[in-house]
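TA notes, week 10

Several of you asked for a full example with nothing omitted. So below is the full record: structure tokens for the whole chain, then the designed sequence directly under it. When grading your own attempts, check the secondary structure regions first.
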């Protein structure tokens, strides 16, 4: 019986692939023990127990970005967290650690190395985070979502996806999806989403441009986010909802998407062959633009900077695209060809390699 410790948390970009891998392992190894390592503050504190896994909790310890009290105390606090994880590894007889980035992954990698057990890294973003940059120096078992990700030993495995996305056939589910959202079955559908909290620039531009989009013969399924203050649209073909917990149906209803370029979003949308216009979040270290780069270069999506996504851009660029059905069909085919549907399976294969002590395959990219 294998005992797994999956480390990651804080954001959906860490928690969702962790849960996808956990579910895959549980389905294929019912006798295995699967535990997750996280904090009491991140999304994992709710999502991991809800999915039926035990969450082992450590203190949230972000890396200090400036000199001050937290920076002075960081080394000692970090050692304490590492020691706590070493205790979990020892008391639970963990066989392998799998890290998905975030605050808890760096101490997990160090604890695994000290304990003499293998550890595996999965990097969701095209531009790696600090924890995975550190950990990849000490293990040959490094999986990445996007080609060209700069990590030692990187092997492209894709993004571990939820089962409902991996198995999704948009054409088969389209009728059900459009009925679910109350959409016109005869109109082309633009899906707009800025994530669970929404994206102000996307929301404002689409709201201001809705009449032109509808005038081009389309309808809009607009997931505004729970934090949005947008007033309801007066257009019948502009369907606004605050939150969607059936994204597989939203994807199935859509012919084109406008979205942020988080790694999970890009991976899911690309895997199912949905063409997209990506509007990367204009903060952080620029990883969202890099996440979308590959599928944009492959011709399966278009990219527009957040500051440039204005009603004028919609008028001059998006509306002509909406009126070109052949271009959209071509983008869909190229997105599907670029996308990876079996990222969960490939990540599990990397974990098996680590458990066997096998050398990574020749599919390394660096």
């Amino acid at each position: 019986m294998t005992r797994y410790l999956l480390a990651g948390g804080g954001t959906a970009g860490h928690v969702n692939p962790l849960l996808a891998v956990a579910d895959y392992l549980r389905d294929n190894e019912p006798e295995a023990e699967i535990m997750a390592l996280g904090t009491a503050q991140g999304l994992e504190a709710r999502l991991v127990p809800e999915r039926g896994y035990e969450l082992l909790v450590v203190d949230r310890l972000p890396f200090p970005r400036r000199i001050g009290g937290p920076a002075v105390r960081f080394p000692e606090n970090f050692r304490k967290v590492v020691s706590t994880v070493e205790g979990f590894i020892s008391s639970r007889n963990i066989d392998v650690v799998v890290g998905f980035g975030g605050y808890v992954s760096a101490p997990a990698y160090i604890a695994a190395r000290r304990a003499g057990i293998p550890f595996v890294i999965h990097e969701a973003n095209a531009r790696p985070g600090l924890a995975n940059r550190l950990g990849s120096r000490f293990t040959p078992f490094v999986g990445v979502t996007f080609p060209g990700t700069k990590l030692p030993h990187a092997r492209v495995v894709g993004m571990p996806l939820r089962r409902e996305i991996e198995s999704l056939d948009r054409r088969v589910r389209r009728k059900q999806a459009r009925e679910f959202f109350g959409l016109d079955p005869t109109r082309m559908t633009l899906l707009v989403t800025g994530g669970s909290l929404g994206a102000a620039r996307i929301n404002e531009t689409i709201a201001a441009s809705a009449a032109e989009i509808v005038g081009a013969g389309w309808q809009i399924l607009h997931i505004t986010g729970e934090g949005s203050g947008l007033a309801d649209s007066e257009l019948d073909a502009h369907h606004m909802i605050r939150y969607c917990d059936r994204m597989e149906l939203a994807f199935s209803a859509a012919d084109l998407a406008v979205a942020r370029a988080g790694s999970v979003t890009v991976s899911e949308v690309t895997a199912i062959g949905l063409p997209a216009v990506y509007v990367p979040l204009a903060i952080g270290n620029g990883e969202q633009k890099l996440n979308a780069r590959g599928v944009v270069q492959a011709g399966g999506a278009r990219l527009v900077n957040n500051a440039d996504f204005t009603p004028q851009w919609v008028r001059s660029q998006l509306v002509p695209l909406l009126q070109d059905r052949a271009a959209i069909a071509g983008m869909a085919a190229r997105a599907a060809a670029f996308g990876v549907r079996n990222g969960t399976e490939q990540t599990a294969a990397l974990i098996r390699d680590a458990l066997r002590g096998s050398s990574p395959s020749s599919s390394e990219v660096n």
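Residues 69-91 form the longest helix (23 residues). Use that as a sanity check on your answer.
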